[in-house]
């Protein structure tokens, strides 16, 4: 695996091919998830370099499908990964593992193993962080641009439903992110009550 070369390739792809209206699903989000996946993996006791490289690669490629499509971007991301990663000496087995992680991030998340759980938690790490409101606003703008949400009142209700149905999978995310996620959810419920 030539991870550094694969990373340079995908960062350039995302920088040049993602729509300017992907306020949330941006290169910044991908790099944020890439940092989170390594942090969570290490906290979960993963030390094997190949495994860490697979997680990092999956994080870097998990939203590359957005360069071609909005809906179904996970499957498109797998197609791109299968096209591109052999150039960087990834084996078919490694690419299969990476595609499993990418597919697991589709909402509702459906991880089937520890690596998939870690990427899913990294992808939605922001739900339990101090910068939640800022990042959520980026997602609101992105969805509004596409006619997928009408206004902020509707957005708050969507967020509540999403967060009520979301779960963190790893013990690390459950301990480090769930408490603040619960606080954000309480605040959103209060806002919706006040709007009624």
- Distance N to C terminus: 54 Å
Strand content: under 5%
Count of spatially separate domains? 1
Shape category: globular
What's the main sheet like? none
The total strand number stands at: 0
Q: How many separate helices?
A: 10
Using the coordinates shown, work out and report the CATH topology. Answer: Hypothetical protein af1432
Report on the structure:
The chain is 67% helix and 0% strand. By secondary structure, the chain is mainly α. It has a single domain (3-195), classed as Hypothetical protein af1432 (Orthogonal Bundle). The model has no long low-confidence stretch (mean pLDDT 97). It has helices at residues 3-17, 27-43, 49-61, 73-84, 92-104, 114-123, 132-145, 152-165, 171-176, 178-195.
Protein topology:
Layout: H1 3-17, H2 27-43, H3 49-61, H4 73-84, H5 92-104, H6 114-123, H7 132-145, H8 152-165, H9 171-176, H10 178-195
Keywords:
Hypothetical protein af1432; mainly alpha
Condensed summary:
The chain is mostly helical and 196 residues long. The chain contains ten helices and no strands.
């Amino acid at each position: 695996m030539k991870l550094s070369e694969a990373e340079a390739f995908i960062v350039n792809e995302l920088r040049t091919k993602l729509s300017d209206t992907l306020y949330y699903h941006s290169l910044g989000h991908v790099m944020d998830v890439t940092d989170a996946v390594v942090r969570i993996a290490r906290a979960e006791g993963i030390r094997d370099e190949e495994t860490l490289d697979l997680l990092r690669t999956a994080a870097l490629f998990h939203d590359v499908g957005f360069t071609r499509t909005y809906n179904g971007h996970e499957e498109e991301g797998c197609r791109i990964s299968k096209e591109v990663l052999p150039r960087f000496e990834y084996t078919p087995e490694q690419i299969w593992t990476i595609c499993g992680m990418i597919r697991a991030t589709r909402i509702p998340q459906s991880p089937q193993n520890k690596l998939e759980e870690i990427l899913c938690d990294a992808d939605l790490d922001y739900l339990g962080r101090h910068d939640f409101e800022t990042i959520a606003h980026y997602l609101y703008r992105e969805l509004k641009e596409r006619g997928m949400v009408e206004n902020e009142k509707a957005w708050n209700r969507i967020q509540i439903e999403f967060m009520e149905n979301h779960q963190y999978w790893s013990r690390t995310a459950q301990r480090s992110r769930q408490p603040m996620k619960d606080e954000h959810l309480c605040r959103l419920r209060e806002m919706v009550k006040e709007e009624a």
